[in-house]
């Protein structure tokens, strides 16, 4: 999170930084932001958040890297499911219904 780059490690510290620039969200909204939950934010408030965290909007919207994830394009990467698919053309087969009965015909 951008807040960690500014040495803010608790939601209460982030709330104090927001209040210094005139943005007064509730602590529960800041905690939701901190926890990665989607929160509705007005564009004006987004500008204030950026001013408080000394960042750009693009930096706020950037996804955090996964811990222990391999960089993209590393040798040996295989597409999902590629290791189990046979070579040659395969005709798709529709899935059956969960109830086990016959599938209904599509409308004509």
Characterize the structure shown:
The protein is mainly alpha-helical. It is 36% helix and 0% strand. It has five helices and no strands. Helix 2 packs across helix 3 and helix 2 packs across helix 4. The model has no long low-confidence stretch (mean pLDDT 75).
Structure, briefly:
The chain is an all-alpha fold and 108 residues long. The protein has helices spanning 2-5, 11-20, 27-35, 43-53, 57-61.
Topology:
Blueprint: H1 2-5, H2 11-20, H3 27-35, H4 43-53, H5 57-61
Helix pairs in contact: 2-3, 2-4
How many helices? The count is: 5
Order of H and E elements: HHHHH
**Mean pLDDT across every amino acid position:** 75
- Provide the structure class: mainly alpha
Largest beta sheet, briefly?
A: none
Distance separating the two termini: 53 Å
- Tally of strands: 0
Helicity, as a percent range: 25-40%
Please give the radius of gyration in angstroms.
24 Å
Shape: elongated
Spans where pLDDT lies below 50 across 5 or more residues: none
Range of strand content: under 5%
Question: Key terms for this structure?
Answer:
108 residues; single chain; mainly alpha
